[in-house]
Amino acid sequence: MTEPVDAETPPLIPVTEPREGTPPVITTRDGLARAAEALATGTGPVAADAERASGYRYGQRTYLVQLRREGVGTLLVDPIAVGELSAIGDALAGTEWVLHAANQDLPGFHDLGMYPAALFDTELAARLLGRSKVGLGAIIAEELGYSLAKEHSAADWSTRPLPEDWLRYAALDVEFLVELRDRLAAALEETGKLEWARQEFEAVRLAPDPSPRVDPWRRTSGMHAVRGGQGIAVVRELWQARDELARKRDRSPGRVLPDRAIVAAALALPRSEQALVALPEFSGKGTRRSSGYWWSAVERALALPASEHPPRRLASTTGTPPPPRSWADKDPAAAARLDAVRAAVRALAEEHDVPQENLLSPAVQRQIAWTPPDVVDEAAVRESLVEQGARPWQVDLTAAPLTEALRTA
């Protein structure tokens, strides 16, 4: 029996095709030049999106760029075939770009020579408005009443030629972005949060691209189970060997050797290549073919003297707080301040219907609790927040409550 439809909530309108059809992919420099000329004649903001293949290829390279502007329609550009896209950036000088989760796509745009002059981030806007679901499909459904299929979000976008249904999906990702932007901007203005959003968008736009992590091998999933120095050395050597091979093959590291295999070797500490491939995690055909390569990495780790084993944890940078779980033992007063700071931020977040992490980043909360100003007054707290990168709206909202929290903790 079909359940009755709520009369107050009209059914979503399914959208399976772009309104002007799926455009052909631009794959030549001449085609790019014509696209740039067209975009320069368009009006209003430009909707932009990008597709990567991070689950399949090495790194975060962009494999497809989608753009849509009033008067132009939707354009699909293949940066692998075309190369850098600075002509697009030049054509859109002074234009606002509308992206969803812009921090994911901007580094790739920068690599291609595209630097937006202004930004509206629909995901960030939805967060500031306290929306419970901030994925693109969910926000479009809630705000505009359209249902978009999302079945190709995890596809291998390095595939060539790209299937027609994938291109249709990609085009739909920018179909409603400008309309969504207008709806969210109106809601931000109505709730008094538009200036907050502008400051957040600008912070995202100007943020430096991510720098390489120190000891990225320490993020190996499941490494917390590895205790001894030899095991940690095995994790490091296998991770580095995998990264080198993945880069050479242009494959996602996890497809070259899963994290669970690295951890299994670190726990078992096999003493021969035969013992290594006897581990279930190394039983795959591809892994066994490269068993000599993996064994060489393990052998290097096992041959290290204890003095050369990597420490279990990185030494904290001067002034950088340790993990909060250790505060109660290391500095009980700081732990009490952190509890008070978090409580103050939580109360403000509930009052203003904003996620706590958007009201004030957890890193800033930890830092001001670990190293509060020498003299705790509102002026000093404001100065500390600014130094740590808090935006003016965040400083104005949190300085007084945090001053009180630090004083009374």
Question: What's the arrangement of secondary structure elements?
Answer:
Layout: E1 13-15, E2 25-26, H1 29-41, E3 43-52, E4 62-70, E5 73-77, H2 79-82, H3 86-91, E6 96-99, H4 102-111, E7 118-121, H5 122-128, H6 136-144, E8 146-148, H7 164-172, H8 177-190, H9 194-206, H10 229-249, H11 253-256, H12 259-268, H13 273-277, H14 285-289, H15 291-303, H16 327-330, H17 332-352, H18 356-359, H19 362-370, H20 378-387, H21 392-408
Parallel strand pairs: 1-8, 2-5, 3-6, 6-7
Antiparallel strand pairs: 3-4, 4-5
Structure description:
The structure is a single chain. Residues 1-5 have low confidence and may be disordered. This protein is α/β, with parallel strands linked by helices. A hairpin with a 2-residue loop joins strand 4 and strand 5. The N and C termini lie far apart (58 Å). The chain has a 6-stranded mixed β-sheet with strand order 2-5-4-3-6-7, sandwiched between helices. The chain has a two-stranded parallel ribbon with strand order 1-8. The protein folds into 3 domains: 13-206, Ribonuclease H-like superfamily/Ribonuclease H (Nucleotidyltransferase, domain 5); 216-308, DNA polymerase, domain 1 (Orthogonal Bundle), CATH 1.10.150; 324-408, DNA polymerase, domain 1 (Orthogonal Bundle), CATH 1.10.150. It contains 21 helices and 8 strands. Helix 10 packs antiparallel against helix 12 and helix 17 (332-352) runs antiparallel to helix 19 (362-370). Residues 228-308 form the HRDC domain. This is Ribonuclease D. Pfam families: DNA_pol_A_exo1, DNA_pol_A_exoN, HRDC. One of its GO terms (molecular function) is 3'-5' exonuclease activity.
